Amino acid sequence: MPLSKDVPTSVAAATGSRPSMGGRVIALLEARRASELAQLVAAYGGVARSAPALREEPLDDLGAIADFLDRLRARPADLVLFQTGVGTRALFRGVEALGRVDEWRAALERAVVAVRGPKPTAALRELGVRVDARAEEPYTTAELLAVLASRDLAGRLVVVQQYGEANRELVAALGQRGAEVLEVEVYRWTLPEDTAPLEELLRDLPNGSVDALVVTSQVQVRHLFEVAGRLGLAATLPRALGGVLVAAVGPVAARALREHGVRVDLEPEHPKMGALVAALAGHFASTERKGHA
User: Fold this and answer.
1) What whole-number distance in Å separates Cα of residue 215 and Cα of residue 200?
2) Lowest mean pLDDT among 3-12, 67-76, 191-200, 248-257
3) DSSP codes joined into one string, the chain
4) What is the distance between the alpha carbons of residues 264 and 95, in angstroms, rounded to a whole number?
5) Which among 21, 65, 107, 253 is least buried, having the fewest CB atoms inside 10 angstroms?
6) Is the pLDDT reported for residue 277 higher than 90?
7) Rounded to the nearest 5°, which phi and psi values hold at 233?
């Protein structure tokens, strides 16, 4: 049931009311914003089934942040890349705990500051840090590299705030342009401590009790298949998802699904959770109308 990206136009605009999911069960792999996403699903008449597929584990390694600042003191950064809002705030908290905020802000004043998307932009705005370059939608590594394409990086020191795992594509591309890359990591993505809800979801996928699966990050896909592998279900998981509408928030999550052999049915025009849920509701409302035609 593949859908084009422009399917999630506002059905509400056409009908004069918000589209409804009609009580369908929507499985969510989101963790940090699980409650917010579940509320959105409920607002559109769906039944959220939460099965978190990841956990953000703070590193709380002030020694590593101190070493990072020491390196910047010895050699100032030319470019600083922030990839996530949660990572941006965590880095500032660590710097503050060390009593080195003024030093860090001075380093940012000297450097070009670039962001991958709206979340780090908002975090830096709250922190009073200017932003010099912003990636365009859909806020992937490709867009971040595109906005930096005109800058000479040869021999420059580029700081990369990592986002729970290493962005090897970004680091490799910067290295190919002659940059020296300094990575700073303040949290990691791991499996949830309790994987029972995810295991139950995997067992239930073939029996028709789930109508849609919502994927909001690529790491969710990796963890989904990792847990499926432990249960002996990895090989049959793409087929089990054949009877479920699979929705990805953006191209990175969609690519991860396809790389695992999973068909992606729906991807919103804008890579945001609100747009994704609205698109999902619009699809189900359209299906209902066709069924009653």
Assistant:
1) 17
2) 3-12
3) ----TTTTS-HHHHHSS----TT-EEEE---TTHHHHHHHHHHTT-EEEE----EEEE---HHHHHHHHHHHHHS--SEEEE--HHHHHHHHHHHHHTT-HHHHHHHHHHSEEEESSHHHHHHHHHHT----EEPPTT--HHHHHHHTTTS--TT-EEEEE--BS--HHHHHHHHHTT-EEEEE--EEEE--S--HHHHHHHHHGGGT---EEEE--HHHHHHHHHHHHHTT-TTTHHHHGGGSEEEESSHHHHHHHHHTT----B--SSSSHHHHHHHHHHHHHHHHHHHT-
4) 41
5) 107
6) yes
7) -115, 0
Pairing of strands 187-190, 55-58: antiparallel
**Domains (range + CATH), the chain:** 11-54+193-291 (3.40.50.10090), 57-189 (3.40.50.10090)
Is residue 102 pLDDT above 60, yes or no? yes
Residue 42 · residue 20 · CB < 8 Å: no
Residue 227 in tokens: 């847990």
Convert the pLDDT of each residue in 196-206 to its tens digit: 999 999 999 99
pLDDT at 291: 55
As a whole number of angstroms, the distance between CA 241 and CA 226 comes to 16
What pTM was estimated for this model as a whole? Answer: 0.85
Among candidates 67, 78, 19, 13, which has minimal Cα distance to 45? 19
Whether residue 15 is predicted with pLDDT greater than 50 in this model: the reply is: no
Structure tokens at 211: 């109508």
In sign, the C-alpha dihedral spanning 11, 12, 14, 15 is positive
Cα separation, 245 vs 223, whole angstroms: 19
